[in-house]
Amino acid sequence: MPAIITEWMNRIINGGLKVHLLVFLLCLILGIVVIRVLFDKLLKIIAGKTNIAYSLLKQTFRGIPTLLGILIGLYAATEILAIPPHPLLFLQRLFHSLVILSFTLLIARLASGYLKQKFGKTSGAFASTSILATTIDLAVYTIGILFLLESFGVAISPLLTALGVGGLAVALALQDTLANLFSGINILVAKQIKIGDFVKLSTNEEGHVVDMNWRNTTIMTPTENMVVIPNQKFASTTITNYAQPFAECSIAIPIGVSYESDLEQVERVTVEVAKEVIREMAGGANDFEPVVRYNSFAESSINFNVILRVKTVTDQSLVRHEFIKRIHVRYQREGIIIPFPTRTVSWEPQPVAVKSVS
After folding, report:
1. Phi and psi (nearest 5°) for 252?
2. Cα–Cα dist 135/189, whole Å
3. Are 113 and 60 in contact (CB under 8 A)?
4. Cα 221 from Cα 241, distance rounded (Å)
5. Quick count: other Cβ atoms within 10 Å of Cβ 193?
6. How far is CA 339 from CA 108, 252, 289, 303, 343, in A?
7. 292: which DSSP letter?
8. Which residues form the Mechanosensitive ion channel transmembrane helices 2/3 domain (predicted)?
9. Which candidate, 213, 236, 235, 238, places its Cα nearest to that of 226?
């Protein structure tokens, strides 16, 4: 068997340019096909044993099997064929360049995929942690290019010095842009605001966070309008996050009944209606027990709050709407009066002294 292999190797080596090219192409094709098949099976195994989606893995490793196949083909061809020194040097540099390119792409995509898996909560056109992904991609690709230049014999020390001086000038010229960039990174790293959270700002803008890029944060309002806020202002304002630490939230609905009402009956009827609403409405928190709390004697009514709980803050409008309709009908049926504001004015006429003029 070794003698046969040696004979075939000698034939290939002495076969001329056409044979060499054919062997080179066969090595490339075999390397690409084998690696792609093995990679696809490996990704399916990883997706089956972890909570990482197969589509995300396939997107992350897109093109990597082809590059690895080309690398294996190049390595096999250089080992089998007797290549002259100059073409061999070119192929070796090409091999090193493809190795650097493969690792650069792999590291950048792994970082981006990890960020999407870690921070991303919702799907959609804007649901991506683009700010961190862009920053890390830029850093990884810059390092990869520097290694690539060094592999071709380019001195990178002067280049690094020039980049340092140029970076300082750019930083001074782009202070606001860099402030927005690092503010956005701080927001994401702190994990207090995530993509998909419903937030309300101290300036009264509210809605779902749909994107954070290198310059601004985008909020989709309940009326489906987009509010674009610079990251520096977003990080410095007071924010109420209705999705943290829990998505469920309580709502208080104020009601007033007349002074002639039986307060025990009012409480019982109100709780019954509140239970019906949160049990039947899709946005109601089914396991919550509604509460009635009297709080004041007003001019024409005894006031109280009805406390209900909804699954998300966006459900409160519909639940409140349905509760008010049902409680109005039930109060009319039970004879419970919701009074109009009235004021009783007492006036006693005073005798008027009449002075006679003679």
Report:
1. -115, 125
2. 13
3. yes
4. 14
5. 19
6. 67, 20, 27, 11, 12
7. E
8. 139-175
9. 213
Encode pLDDT of 200-219 as tens digits: 898 888 898 888 777 788 89
Segment 47-68 mean pLDDT: 69
- 249-284: burial string, b at 16+ Cβ within 10 Å, e else: bebebebbbeeebeeeebbebbeebbbbbbeebebb
What predicted TM-score, i.e. pTM, was given to this entire model?
A: 0.52
The pLDDT tens digits for 297-354 are 988 899 999 999 999 888 889 999 999 999 999 999 999 998 877 666 777 776 666 5
Mean pLDDT of all residues in the chain?
Answer: 76
Domains and CATH numbers, the chain: 121-244 (2.30.30.60), 249-334 (3.30.70.100)
> What's the CA gap between 164 and 10, in Å, rounded?
54
Q: What are phi and psi of 257, to 5 degrees?
A: -125, 160
Q: Are 36 and 66 in contact (CB under 8 A)?
A: yes
In 94-117, which positions are buried (b, 16+ CB within 10 angstroms) versus exposed (e)?
ebbeebbbbebbbbbbebbbbbbe
Confidence of residue 268 (pLDDT cuts 50, 70, 90): very high
Residues 293, 305 contacting (CB under 8 angstroms) = yes
Task: Find all residues with CB under 8 Å of 318, minimum gap 6, and list them.
Answer: 281, 283
235 vs 36: CA distance, rounded Å: 45
- Residue 208's DSSP bridge partners are 198, 220
Beta strands in the chain (DSSP E): 198-201, 206-212, 216-220, 226-230, 239-241, 249-257, 291-297, 302-310
pLDDT of 79-93, one tens digit each? 666 666 676 677 677
